[in-house]
């Protein structure tokens, strides 16, 4: 009987601890993770890219005030380029509140990088109103790239950034996004919200950056994430993916969507360093 009570109490404590961790401690946390990708990078100097997705400002623990900390942490990494991969706002999250895109953009205006700050919109941004979110970001100097490309001067050398609009809620016209890429020498990075567009990305693109999945938001030991918002299941859940010589990196994001829980997938800012293979 005593053993049974001890086991029962242990189970109850474990459940309470897991709930506290998943619904409070982990989603309220923030970390920076560095990732190095050796690719066919043509320059001696690597490119340092701050990759941030799914801010979902307005979700629990992700207030405009908390966004200040996110911006500060990004600036501390001293990136060459900042890529914001959509879902700046949140729609329909339990326990959340509405955050104005204009207030979000005001905080993002403090981001600093020599090559600038580029962005794409996510499905939540379009649910609220793509024009409003894009207008707010553009007003503070964030370049929103929706099925278009821009050539930027980075400290390492020039680079094309092609923005592909959201796979679920927009045209996601890859060919149109690359239409402005006029040379075959300058490296091309593609940014998009949903990684499900990756099979359509040609080999001309050196690296595709995406978000959206949140890594499932919940990832259990041994069994992994039970739910991934992707047509491909766990194929593009998180991290580095290589298919037919093409490279994809999927950010697990910062905020929460739907149920405000994170377990085994902490809010993360990624500093992705793209360098030449021989370095």
Q: Describe it for me?
A:
Helices cover 24% and strands 24% of the residues. The chain is α/β, with parallel strands linked by helices. The protein has a single domain (2-276), classed as Metallo-dependent phosphatases (Purple Acid Phosphatase, chain A, domain 2, 4-Layer Sandwich), CATH 3.60.21. Strands 1-12-2-3-4-5 form a six-stranded mixed beta sheet, with helices on one face. Strands 6-7-8-9-11-10 form a six-stranded mixed beta sheet. Helix 4 links the parallel strand 4 (117-119) and strand 5. The chain starts with a helix and ends with a strand.
Number of domains: 1
Strand content: 15-25%
CATH architecture, please? 4-Layer Sandwich
Radius of gyration: 19 Å
CATH homologous superfamily annotation: Metallo-dependent phosphatases
Strand order of the largest sheet: 1-12-2-3-4-5
End-to-end Cα distance, whole Å, is 64 Å
Rounded average pLDDT: 90
User: Stretches where pLDDT falls below 50 for ≥5 residues?
Assistant: 3-24
Question: Count the helices. How many?
Answer: 5
CATH topology: Purple Acid Phosphatase, chain A, domain 2
Furnish the topology, listing elements before pairings.
Blueprint: H1 2-25, E1 31-39, E2 47-52, H2 64-76, E3 81-84, H3 101-108, E4 117-119, H4 123-139, E5 143-144, E6 148-154, E7 157-164, H5 174-177, E8 188-192, E9 207-210, E10 239-243, E11 246-250, E12 268-276
Parallel strand pairs: 1-12, 2-3, 3-4, 4-5, 7-8, 8-9, 9-11
Antiparallel strand pairs: 2-12, 6-7, 10-11
Helix pairs in contact: 2-3, 3-4
